[in-house]
C-alpha cells in the first residue's frame, strides 16, 4: 500500500505540490491527469524518493520515503517506473537493458537473468528485438522494452509517467495493451496519462490535478460524466473531443 | 644523412619505450582519476565539490612543466628521500591530466538526461552502480573524440619530463646530440617518431569511433 499524507513540495518559491492526500491499495490502478506543470510527474518522483519533499509523509508498505534511515535504493527495487521518453540505456541492447539491474542489484546468475528477460520480451511482444540497440527500435518498441526492464526486478508497484505521450499515434495502443495486461494480472499501478480510454477501462480511481492540488477524484464513469469542478470540466472537454 | 640516428637507433628507440610507458601510466591514471573528478565537479555535496573544483582550477592555471618540476623537488621533502624521475613524472602527469580529463568527463556527464539516471535508480541501482554501468560508459563514448585529442596531447607532453632527467625519447636525442652534434637529424628523427605514432593513434581511434557511430551505440 502506498500512503501519501499532506504532501507538500516547493521548488524555491513555487509550490509544486500542495497538501496531497492519496492512498493506493494493493491491486489498485490509479490514474492521474491534469495540465502540464500541475505536479503529476513530481508526485510520482516523490513516491520513490527521486525527488525530496519538504512536508508531509509518503509511505510504501509502511516504510517512510523521507526517513533518512530508509534505504531508498532498496525501496525502489519494488517500485518500477516507466518514463515519457523511455530512457533506455543507449549503449546497451534490449537484453542488456533488461538484465542490468537483476544482475547487478539482485546478483542473479546470467542465465537466470537472461531467461527472465526473454520471457518478459515475449510478454511485451518483441522477443526478436533482444539484441537490438534502442536507436534501432521504434518508440513503441522502446517503451515496451522499458516496461520489461522495470518488470525484471519483479516490482510490487509500477508507476508510469505519461508513457504514451512521446509516441506516434499508431504505437500508443501496443503500449497500452501491455499496461492493460498488467492491470489484469493484479499489478498495483500509478499512472500519469491523458489516455482517457485507458483510464475508463482500468482505473479504480481517477485523480485530476491542477496547480499542485488534487482538484477532483472519482471512480471512472462518474468522473467523466459528472465532474464536479469547473476546472475538471474545462480540462475534460479539451482532451475528450 | 641519418647515420647518427642509425648508429644510436637502439638507444633512441629505448627512449620511445620509456615515452610509451610514461604515456600509458599517465593516461590510465589520468583518465581514471578524471572520471571521478568529473563526477565530483557535478556533486551537490559542498565538501566534495569545492575542494575538487579548487584543485582543478589550480592545476589548469599552472604550466605543466612547473607541475613536473614542483613534484620532483617537493616529493623528496614529503617522502623523506630522493625519488626517481619516472614515478615522479607519472604522479605529476596523472594529477595534471586528470583535471583536463575531468572537465571532458564532466561535459560528457552533462549530456546524460536526469531521467536516464532516474531510470537506473528506479530499478534499485545505486549511485556508484549507475556511474559504473550507465553514466561513465555513455560519457566515455560521447566524449571519445575529445578524449582521443587529449590523449594525443598527453603523449606529446610526456617529452616535458626530460626537464627532470627522465631518459625518454627527447632526452635521449639530446644525449646523443651532445656526442654527435647532429641536432637537426636527431631532433628531426624524434619529431618524425611523434608524428607517426600520433597519426596512427588518431586514425585508429577515429576508425573505431566511426564504427561505433554506425552501430548506433554512441
Describe this structure as you would to a colleague.
Chain A has 9 helices and 10 strands. Chain A has 241 residues and is an alpha/beta fold. In chain A, α6 links the parallel β7 and β8 (188-192). Chain B is flat and about 65 Å long. By secondary structure, chain B is mainly alpha-helical. Chain A binds chain B through residues 45, 48, 50, 73-74, 76-77, 79-81, 83-85, 87-91, 100-101, 104-106, 133, 135-136, 146, 149-150, 152-153, and chain B through 113, 115-116, 118-126, 129, 133-134, 137-138, 141, 215-218.
Give descriptors for this structure.
heterodimer, A: 241 residues, alpha/beta, six-stranded mixed beta sheet, four-stranded antiparallel beta sheet, 9 helices, 10 strands, 37% helix, globular, B: 218 residues, mainly alpha
What is the terminal separation of chain B in angstroms?
48 Å
Shape of chain B: flat
Radius of gyration of CA atoms of chain A, rounded to a whole number: 18 Å
How would you state the average pLDDT of chain A, rounded?
Answer: 93
Helix content of chain B: over 70%
Estimated share of beta-strand residues of chain B: under 5%
Number of strands of chain A: 10
- Helix percent band of chain A: 25-40%
Number of helices of chain B: 10
Q: Segments of chain A where pLDDT lies below 50 for 5+ residues? A: none
As a percent range, the share of strand residues of chain A is: 15-25%
Query: What's the mean pLDDT score of chain B?
Result: 91
Number of strands of chain B: 0
Structural class category of chain B: mainly alpha
Question: The biggest beta sheet of chain A, please?
Answer: 6 strands, mixed
Order of helices and strands of chain B: HHHHHHHHHH
Q: Walk across the major sheet of chain A and give the strand order.
A: 6-7-8-3-9-10
Compute the number of helices of chain A.
9
Order of helices and strands of chain A: EEEHEEHEHHHEHEHEEHH
**Quaternary form:** heterodimer
Amino acid at each position: 500500500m502506498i500512503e501519501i499524507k499532506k504532501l507538500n513540495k516547493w521548488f524555491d518559491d513555487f509550490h509544486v505540490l500542495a497538501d496531497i492526500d492519496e492512498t493506493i491499495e494493493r491491486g489498485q490502478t490509479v490514474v492521474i491527469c491534469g495540465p502540464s506543470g500541475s505536479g503529476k510527474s513530481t508526485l510520482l518522483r516523490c513516491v520513490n524518493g527521486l525527488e525530496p519533499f519538504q512536508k508531509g509523509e509518503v509511505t510504501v508498505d509502511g516504510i517512510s520515503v523521507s526517513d533518512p534511515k530508509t534505504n531508498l535504493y532498496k525501496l525502489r527495487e519494488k517500485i518500477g517506473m516507466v518514463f515519457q521518453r523511455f530512457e533506455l540505456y543507449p549503449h546497451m541492447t534490449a537484453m542488456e537493458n533488461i538484465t542490468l539491474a537483476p544482475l547487478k542489484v539482485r546478483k542473479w546468475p546470467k542465465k537466470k537473468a537472461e531467461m527472465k528477460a526473454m520471457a518478459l520480451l515475449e510478454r511485451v511482444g518483441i522477443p526478436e528485438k533482444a539484441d537490438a540497440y534502442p536507436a534501432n527500435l521504434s518508440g513503441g518498441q522502446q517503451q515496451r522494452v522499458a516496461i520489461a526492464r522495470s518488470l525484471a526486478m519483479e516490482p510490487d508497484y509500477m508507476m508510469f509517467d505519461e508513457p504514451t505521450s512521446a509516441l506516434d499515434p499508431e504505437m500508443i495502443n501496443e503500449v497500452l495493451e501491455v499496461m492493460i495486461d498488467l492491470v489484469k494480472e493484479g499489478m498495483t499501478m500509478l499512472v500519469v496519462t491523458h489516455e482517457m480510454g485507458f483510464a475508463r477501462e482500468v482505473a479504480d480511481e481517477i485523480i485530476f490535478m491542477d496547480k499542485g492540488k488534487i482538484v477532483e477524484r472519482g471512480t471512472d464513469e462518474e468522473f467523466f460524466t459528472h465532474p464536479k469542478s469547473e476546472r475538471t470540466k474545462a480540462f475534460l472537454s479539451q482532451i475528450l473531443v | 644523412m641519418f647515420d647518427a640516428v642509425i648508429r644510436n637507433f637502439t638507444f633512441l628507440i629505448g627512449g620511445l619505450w620509456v615515452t610509451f610507458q610514461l604515456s600509458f601510466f599517465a593516461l590510465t591514471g589520468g583518465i581514471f582519476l578524471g572520471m571521478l573528478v568529473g563526477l565530483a565537479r557535478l556533486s551537490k555535496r559542498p565538501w566534495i565539490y569545492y575542494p575538487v573544483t579548487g584543485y582543478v582550477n589550480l592545476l589548469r592555471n599552472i604550466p605543466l612543466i612547473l607541475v613536473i618540476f614542483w613534484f620532483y623537488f617537493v616529493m623528496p621533502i614529503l617522502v623523506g628521500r630522493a625519488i626517481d624521475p619516472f614515478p615522479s613524472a607519472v604522479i605529476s602527469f596523472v594529477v595534471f591530466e586528470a583535471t583536463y580529463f575531468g572537465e571532458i568527463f564532466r561535459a560528457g556527464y552533462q549530456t546524460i538526461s536526469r531521467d536516464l539516471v532516474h531510470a537506473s535508480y528506479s530499478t534499485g541501482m545505486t549511485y556508484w552502480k549507475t556511474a559504473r554501468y550507465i553514466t561513465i560508459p555513455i560519457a566515455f563514448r560521447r566524449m571519445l573524440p575529445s578524449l582521443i585529442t587529449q590523449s594525443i596531447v598527453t603523449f606529446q607532453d610526456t617529452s616535458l619530463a626530460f626537464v627532470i632527467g627522465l631518459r625518454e625519447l627527447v632526452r635521449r636525442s639530446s644525449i646523443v646530440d651532445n656526442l654527435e652534434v647532429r641536432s637537426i637529424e636527431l631532433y628531426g628523427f624524434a619529431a618524425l617518431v611523434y608524428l607517426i605514432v600520433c597519426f596512427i593513434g588518431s586514425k585508429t581511434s577515429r576508425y573505431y569511433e566511426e564504427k561505433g557511430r554506425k552501430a548506433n551505440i554512441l
